[in-house]
Amino acid sequence: MSSLSLFKRELRRHIWNMLESRGVALPPKPIYHRIPNFKGADRAAKIIAETSVFKKANIIKIDPDSPLKHIRMQALMHGKTIVMPTPRLRRGFVIVDPNKIGYSKIGFASTIRGAMTLGKIVDDPYAIPEVDLFIVGCVAVSRINGVRIGKGGGFGDLEYAILLEAGKIAYDIAIIALVHDLQVLNRPLPKDNHDVPVDLIATPTSLIRVLRRENRPRGILCDKLSKEYASLPIIRKLAKC
Question: Does domain 3-26+35-165+173-236 have CATH number 3.30.300.20?
């Protein structure tokens, strides 16, 4: 294990322990090895919904993690289409258009099961609509350089790379991390070349603009792909690696 991988592993453990010990962690539990759910995620979602970048966006890629349920609901209630990754990207992405599901089903559609039931599953990256905004979860994030630490799977970074390769996002698309205040670090975090830093951080108490965001990868880094990732249908359809 590299020194960077070891650092990330220890940081994750520290954050998970702190969220539990401070009593802010919410189910599903255990929160270890997950993007942790937390008290106040609904308030953080409301803060995002008041931003100009959210108001201007029509199509938003939002991760399926539990703390992001509230912002998925906010997006659908505001008439915005959601693009959400399917579990481990095995089936690509699911597209949830609020105009096609009806207002009464928005609560269900904001859950993972509801999105998979009511949305349209797309495994062709070129069939995904152009995305205006990313909203992501994480375990830890730096307010200095925007580097985020996920749960260790690397799927969040891969999803950015896939959509960039397919021409469905701009390189400098706005990315917002939704986290608890305890997950925000007041120091820069080390970065691997496939990591995708964020621009803004929404917590239950504030909206934080990252001070000096690090650069992002320009697409899929084929030499970094595991066999599992390289064999994904949505990767193979990009015909790059």
Answer: no
Give the chain's length. 241
Give the separation between CA 197 and CA 11, rounded to whole angstroms: 17
pLDDT tens profile 36-91: 999 999 999 999 999 999 999 999 999 999 999 999 999 999 999 999 999 889 99
Which of 142, 150, 131 lies closest to 201, judged by CA?
142
One-letter identity of residue 219: G
Q: Tell me the per-residue pLDDT of 120-149, one tens digit each, with 9 for 90 and over.
A: 999 999 999 999 999 999 999 999 999 999
Structure tokens at 226: 């595991």
Question: How would you label 213-233 residue by residue, b for 16+ Cβ within 10 Å and e otherwise?
Answer: bbebbebbeeebbeeebeebe
Structure tokens at 1: 């294990």
Looking at residue 199, the DSSP 8-state letter turns out to be: S
Amino acid at 216: R
DSSP, collapsed to helix, strand or coil, labels residue 142 as strand
What pTM does this model have? Answer: 0.95
Query: Across-strand partners of 28?
Result: none
